[in-house]
Amino acid sequence: MRIEENRSDVKVKVSNESKRKRRQKKVSPVQRLYNTCKEVFADCGPDIVPSPEKIQTLVAVLDKISQADVDLRPNMLFFDGNRAPIITYLQLHECDKFSIGIFCLPPSSVIPLHNHPGMTVFSKLLFGTMHIKSYDWLDTKDKGDANPDGVAPVANHSNSYPDGLRPAKLKVNSEFTAHCSTSVLYPTDGGNMHCFTAKTACAVLDVLGPPYCDPEGRHCQYYFDYPLTDFPVDGVPVPDEEKDGYAWLKERENPEDLVLLGAPYDGPKITET
């Protein structure tokens, strides 16, 4: 009997230990996202893109995150269409390697065309319908720059371009509805300059690697876009039948009508390690 009692004690201890380990292994989706970002961006920096395997790992984690995982609902005040179109940013984490945050857009609000210098950016639409328009530069400023679609680089004829204009290739011009796949843009490809227009209330989970940093020259620059045919010049080798897929971009001042406010993130917290 004494042996049987000892065996019972062992079973209880094993059972309790198993439960404790299961509790330890249960990680919230946002914590898993943070842990994955630490691994993916560990050896990265400006203009250094994670490996394809690491990119797919992070995309897989983002694809599984839902609005419930970050405690957001379309009926929250952030998304009220009856007030001025104020866009709210909820910051979950930021370090020198990457940032995690959520843009909350009420209906009809717009994040104007802007760039992501030297960054790899992952965007997950948590809910809503959004129109996205994005561009990549057609020419290259530096010999080391990669050109969109792997096409041979087009020489930079910036001296012959109309004042302040630079040609760009249209990458995306479509509406997206949750739960679409996570999108990824790169320093010189994938639509590095994009514009978001909320067709309904929208929430976008964004991961930037590395984040914006003015002292390091990674500031957010906004642009106007114009049809390529508005300023015909030599040195832009685009066939007439394809010119709708290209545009001139021109830097602009920060848009006065863009109201972007920060607010506390009240969802599940991240434990920084």
UniProtKB/TrEMBL annotation:
Residues 1-18 have a biased composition (Basic and acidic residues). GO terms for biological process: detection of hypoxia. Gene3D superfamilies: Jelly Rolls. Residues 1-27 are annotated as: Disordered. Its cofactor is Fe(2+). GO terms for molecular function: cysteine dioxygenase activity; metal ion binding. It catalyses: L-cysteine + O2 = 3-sulfino-L-alanine + H(+). The keyword Metal-binding applies. Keywords: Iron, Metal-binding, Oxidoreductase. Its EC number is 1.13.11.20. Belongs to the cysteine dioxygenase family. This is cysteine dioxygenase. It comes from Olea europaea subsp. europaea.
